[in-house]
Every structure is written in structure tokens, then in C-alpha cells.
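Q: Hi! First time asking for a complex rather than a single chain. Here are the components, and I think there are two in total. Is that enough to go on?
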Amino acid sequence: MPPAHPLSAFRATLPVMFGYIPLGIAFGVLFAQLGHPWYMATAMGLAVYAGAAQFMAVGLLAAGAGIWEIGLATLLLNARHMFYGLSMAARFPRGPSRAYLIFGLTDETYSLLAAAGPASPGFYLTVTALNQVYWVLGCTVGAWLGADTALDLRGLDFVLTALFVVLAIEQALTVRDARPVLLAAVCTLLAWALAGAQHMLLVGLALTTISLLVVYRRQWPTNAI
Amino acid sequence: MADQRYLILAIAVMALATFATRALPFLLLRGDARQPLVLYLGRYLPPAVMTALVIYSLKDVPFAAAPHGAPQLLAIAVTAGLHLWKRNALLSIGVGTGLFMWMTQSGFLAG
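A: Yes, that's all I need. Here is the structure of the assembled complex.
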């Protein structure tokens, strides 16, 4: 078991620090455009702690989307997290820190912990907590700046589109299959045409899931997964 | 204030939904967590959801009027191209967003 020196955990989180603080600031600035007090951005970083879902929520909240729509979109968007636990269940320590380690299992934290291999409970806890500190710090600073910034921020909302473009490419490269991307594009555009802009996401995600299940039965052999 | 209540409710629902997705495998692993359908959806749903979100984020773009969403499509192409080339998420997002902000604020390709 490698030594649990706090400094080694901090060093491991440095790339995430440089990612989470600016991304958190971008979220906070966007969030502030909704007109809510800055500490609600802090609360979101503390309670939700999910980058892509929080960005998505800014759009959904601005559109006045329904609570169930927001919940379902969050579930579907974070469905990928379900698979991180499969390889961590045996490694996470039993005891009081386990629930927090599960709560804090973001894409980046999972990457760091998976890459670190077997390590002490202190290492897991320090890495997970530091990552959330970076994220909450970014969210808070961004919301502060956003509230009274004199900067011209027109166009900054594109950061959401860019984030999802990057995540779609990353995920498609991970599964080495462009079909989920093509299916989703067709289904979402179809939903846009049929259900209109307001219900596009809910109808589009439902159509996408149904068509993925149809394709699963017809084409994808289970041993290819 | 109703608006604040809506936000707090949304945060609570999102927190529950997010924790549920992270905690589920730890519960499932007590039984058989390697069901093919669960593995399949966990694998293929994320790229599909991200794609749906790209399109959803363009819902307010006036494609019918000039410049017909050209700045958005150009910035998406630059973001995607740069990411396929360098695989650096922050670089791709930063350059794509910077380019789009510049186009928006300078009136480049404006209708």
C-alpha cells in the first residue's frame, strides 16, 4: 500500500484543480445570469456536485423546465456514473467515509482514483474532498463575479455547447462507436420538429433510449459490450 | 419567493438524482450487477445524451434568419476539430467559446 502522504494526494489532484476552478467559474457566471443569489451556486456545488448536470440545469432553469424534467435529465446525463462504482465497490473502505466517497465520484475523481490503484482510505478521501473544494470554490467565485461583473459576457453561454461537444466526442471515442451519437442526433432533431423546442430534450431522450433498446435487441450482440 | 422555492426544489431533486446514479452500483453489487442490458445502457447512453444536449443547447438559435446559425456551427466545428486533434478538453472548450464570444461581440457573420 503506497504511503498516504497528504502531499501526494494534493499533487494527484492538480490537473483537476486547473480544470474545476475555471469550469466552476464559468458555471457560476452563467448561473448568476439567472438572477439568483451567489450562495445558491455554492449550495449547488455542495449538494449536487456534477459539472455537466449543473451546466445543463442553468439552461433548464432559465427555460422554467419542470422539476421532473430536470430530475430525469439529471438521471440520464449522470447514468454513466453508475459504472464507476462497479470497479470501486471493492476498493472503497467500509465506514463513515464510504458514503462521501460515493457522493463525490465524478468523472475526474473516478479517473484519479482508478489511476492511483489500491491506496489508503486517507488518500481516497483527500483526493475526493480536494476536488469538491476546487469545484465549489469555482462556482462561488464565478457567481460573485457574475453578479457585478462589467465584462461583456455575450456569447459565454456557448461554453455549454462546447462542453457537450467535447463530452460527446470523448464518450463516442470511449465506446468506439458513432451510432449512439447519430441515433441521438436523429431522435433529438425529430423531437424538435414534433414536440417543439420546449419539450425537445425530454421527448428526444425518451426516443433515443427507446431506439437504443430496439437496436440492442436487433443488432448489438451482448458479448460485444 | 416562488422562484427561490423552485430553485431549491430543483437542487434537491438534482442532488438526489446524481447521488442515486453514483450509489446504485454499490447497492446492485450485492446481487448481480453485470446484467447485459444495464452494461449496455451505461455504455451507450452517455454519448447519446451528450449529443442530445448539444442540439438542445441550440434551441434558441434563429436558424431561419441570417446568418442561419453560422457562428454556432462554425464554433462547434472548431471545438470538435480541435478536440479530435489535441484531446485537451479545456483547450477545445476555451478556444471554441472564445471564438464564439468574439464573433458575437464583434458582429462577425452577423445578420
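A: Residues 17 and 23 of chain B are 10 Å apart (CA to CA). Let me know if you'd like any chain examined more closely.
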